[in-house]
Write a structure and sequence with these properties.
Shape: globular
CATH topology: Inosine-uridine Nucleoside N-ribohydrolase, Chain A
Number of domains: 1
Number of helices: 14
CATH architecture: Alpha-Beta Complex
Largest sheet: 9 strands, mixed
Distance between the termini: 36 Å
Order of helices and strands: EHEHEHHEHHEHHEHEHHEHEEEHH
CATH superfamily: Ribonucleoside hydrolase-like
Structural class: alpha/beta
Bound molecules: beta-D-ribofuranose, calcium ion
Number of strands: 11
Helix content: 25-40%
Low-confidence stretches: none
Length: about 350
């Protein structure tokens, strides 16, 4: 039986690869995609999700629009990280697929009620829609099989402020509501924070290997010495669009002195959602600072019960990045090759 999964994304360059990974994974059945405001507006996120479904020749998968703003503060987006439309330099064809009639919040609630105990939730953006869904259906933690979150930074610097990770920074009140509510879940949520996701470094060599596995020509040789914004000539549209997206992310990380690489936060969370055995977990009690003058939106983990509260999260503290990239390249490469055989794209 395939694993039913609801995906809540703010697509997003790395969210894009998370979607590709799930679409390429035969054991995954995506029951719906919630489009959350974060990297770019919710409307742009939804347009990107629909466009990727087209590029991947996917069957009809519901894409729902999320709230326009975080639950308590104005929206902040980050086009400097993910490009003007959230997908780097990629110019995705506009999709004619319709958006769902129901909201992302309703998608969460209806899907969890329709498949009690079966559905895995994967959040790779701010937790706005999940928090709003919890207000209407407080039973969600018990209805879901498991929740996997990309968010937070614990024993690690932030990527937005010295202590803030982006997804929590955008909507800290929502993150707190989710962590508080999931204290009551039969299974603790798995949290992929920056501590681990910044060890998931994609290099141009990974991209070249992905294109080769897909049988895409010419070889995809992206280099730090290329002029900024160079566009891919890959014959395979999945490789071409993803390469154009990830080049922007390489340039962004290089600009911030992290090297010509890209942290693949969200695809790692997607892989863990399908196979938690990829992750070494450690329970902790997680809370979100909402009032600090310097530290608002910081995630704090109590690893040793000092607060006297039960653990409400399993934080990923270890993984094998090479194993993850092997799996990613095999899956997405084979998927891209099967969808666009060489004779079709020559
Ligand atoms: C997270 O922030 C976003 O920009 C990425 O898509 C990822 O989900 C990393 O902090
Ligand atoms: Ca994201």
């Amino acid at each position: 039986m395939r694993q039913k999964i609801i995906v809540d994304v703010d697509t997003g360059i790395d969210d894009s690869l998370a979607l590709l990974y799930l679409l390429a994974s035969p054991e995954a059945e995506i029951v719906g995609i919630a489009s959350t405001a974060g990297n770019v507006s919710a409307e742009q996120v939804a347009a990107n999700n629909l466009a990727w479904l087209d590029v991947c020749r996917a069957p009809a998968i519901e894409v729902a629009l999320g709230a326009a703003e975080p639950v308590a503060i104005p929206l902040r987006t980050t086009e400097d990280t993910h490009g003007p439309h959230g997908v780097g330099y990629a110019d995705l064809p506009k999709s004619a697929r319709p958006l769902s009639d129901r909201s992302a919040v309703q998608l969460w609630i209806d899907s969890a009620r329709a498949h009690p105990g079966e559905l895995v939730g994967l959040c790779t953006g701010p937790l706005t829609n999940l928090a709003l869904a919890l207000r209407l259906e407080p039973g969600l933690p018990r209805l879901l099989r498991r929740l996997v979150i990309m968010g937070g930074a614990f024993n690690h610097p932030g990527n937005t402020t010295p202590t803030n990770e982006w997804n929590v920074h955008v909507d800290p009140e929502a993150a707190k509501e989710v962590f508080d509510a999931f204290g009551a879940a039969p299974r603790r949520p798995i949290v992929c924070a920056l501590d681990i996701t910044e060890t998931i470094e994609m290099f141009p060599e990974h991209l070249a290997a992905l294109a080769e596995r897909a049988g895409s020509l010419p070889p995809e040789l992206v280099s730090a010495t290329d002029p900024a914004g160079t566009r891919s000539a890959a014959a395979n549209p999945i490789i071409r669009h993803f390469s154009d997206a990830v080049r922007f992310y390489f340039e962004f990380h290089q600009h911030y002195d992290q090297g010509y690489l890209a942290h693949m936060h969200d695809p790692f969370a997607a892989a863990v959602a399908l196979d938690p055995a990829l992750a070494v977990l450690r329970p902790a009690t997680v809370d979100v600072e909402l009032t600090g003058t310097l530290t608002r939106a910081t995630t704090v983990a109590d690893w040793s019960g000092m607060w006297g509260r039960e653990p409400n999260a399993d934080i990923v503290i270890g993984t094998d990045p090479a194993l993850f990239f092997d799996r990613l390249i095999t899956r997405v490469g084979d998927f891209a090759r099967a969808l666009y055989p060489a004779e079709e794209v020559r």
